[in-house]
Design goal:
The structure is a single chain. This protein is mostly beta strands and about 110 residues long. It is built from no helices and 11 strands. Strands 2, 4, 5, 6, 9, 10 and 11 form a 7-stranded mixed β-sheet that branches. Strands 1-3-8-7 form a 4-stranded antiparallel β-sheet, with no helix packed on it. The N and C termini lie far apart (about 35 Å).
Amino acid sequence: VQLQAFGGGLVQAGGSLRISCGASGRYFSSYAAGWFRQAPGKVREFVAAINSKGTTVYEDSVKGRFTIFRDNAKNTLYLQMNSLKSEDTAVYYCTMGIVYWGKGTQLTVSS
């Protein structure tokens, strides 16, 4: 399984961005999938996850602002991020089952 995250960029505070993660392989729909992020000088932290049935869970600081969803037909995981804050600046990583990891995509939020 290979994962590739993309869609990061530079956004102004208060803005929105959607990042995506494409997965190879046949078993994407069977795995829980999620997003983690790592800011400079900090440890990687959980952001959001979605299981195979579509149940979602979020880290407290992103609740109400971020939405995780998946398109199993396209083997793609998404993270819609609204009302972005400077503290959301980080490299965002996607994962399947916390077993497979993609290379990150950088989000920078300017204040």
